[in-house]
Amino acid sequence: MEKVEILKTKRKVLKKNEEIASENKQFLEKHGIKAIEFLGGPGSGKTYLIRELVKEIQDKYNIAYVGGDLAGKHDAELIGETGIPALQINTGNMCHLEAFHLQDALEKLSLSEKTNLLIIENVGNLICPFQLKLGSHKRIVLVDPSEGVEKFEKYPVAFLNSDIIVISKVDLAPALDVNPEVMVKKGKKANPNAKIVQTSAKTKKGINKLAKILET
Ligand code: MG
Ligand code: ZN
Fold first, then answer.
1. I want to staple 99 with a disulfide (CB 3.0 to 4.6 A). Which of 21, 22, 42, 139 is the partner?
2. From ligand 2's centre to the CA of 13, what distance in Å?
3. Nearest Cα to 100, choosing from 210, 18, 215?
4. Is 135 in contact with 28 (CB distance < 8 Å)?
5. Could you say which DSSP state residue 125 is in?
6. What average pLDDT values come out for the chain (216 residues) when binned by 10 residues?
7. What pLDDT score was predicted for residue 36?
């Protein structure tokens, strides 16, 4: 195939995704549901942070969860333990969620009239999920101290396209000889408009702060 044709096809796919993403957003807004999307590399601590966040705010919000992974249902089971409806999407060989995945999930999830917060966990990946909108209102990207402070410079698109940057697993920072403040500084440089929070799902540090930021 000609290079130009490949480019055209890619644009078409992206355009279709944008259309579905905006349908998703309309659906969510019609039903009074705020959707926040968690992103980050594999093992950056998304699911465990979400679990602690859910525990923190579930008396205030009526929450539902949808998580994307290539296989298995580990994350949905873990989040389901909190008692909220949790659905796992298996993407097979796809390294990201697309808007149609969320559209399917919105049909399958047992959303009640009261549901007002949807938490979406994307596939662990710092690259393509940031180029594909799902229809969420806010994006939160996680980066943990073991990933190296150079992450911010290596994946600029991820940080530029996020509203909140979470430095996760900060309880591990001393053992790794990483100063979380340096990560905060790098995060600010990567996206001066993003809010930055240091968290630990283990010690519960920052969970409360993250919950407050989500209210804004
Ligand atoms: Mg996970
Ligand atoms: Zn991908």
1. 21
2. 13
3. 18
4. yes
5. B
6. 79 91 98 98 98 97 97 97 97 96 94 94 97 97 96 97 98 97 98 98 98 92
7. 98
Say how far apart CA 211 and CA 60 lie, in whole Å.
11
pTM, two decimals, is: 0.95
Ligand number with the minimum distance to the CA of 93:
2
Residue 122 — φ and ψ, nearest 5°? -80, 170
How far apart CA 110 and CA 209 sit, in angstroms, is: 29
Q: Report CA torsion sign: 118, 95, 202, 142.
A: negative
CA dihedral 66, 16, 140, 183 (to 10 degrees): 130
| Range list of β-strands (E), 31-112 | 34-40, 63-69, 86-90
Task: Among the bound ligands, name the one nearest to the CA of residue 89.
Answer: 1
Question: Which residues are registered as beta bridge partners of 208?
Answer: none
Residue 51 CA, distance from chain mean position: 13
The CA distance from 201 to 216, in Å, is 22
pLDDT tens profile 97-153: 999 999 999 999 978 899 999 999 999 999 999 999 999 999 999 999 999 899 999
For residue 30, CA distances in Å to 61, 74, 116 come to: 17, 31, 11
Cβ contact 14:98 at 8 Å: no
Euclidean distance between CA atoms 68 and 204, whole angstroms: 24
Closest CA to 169 of 149, 199, 210: 199
At 141 the three-state DSSP class reads strand
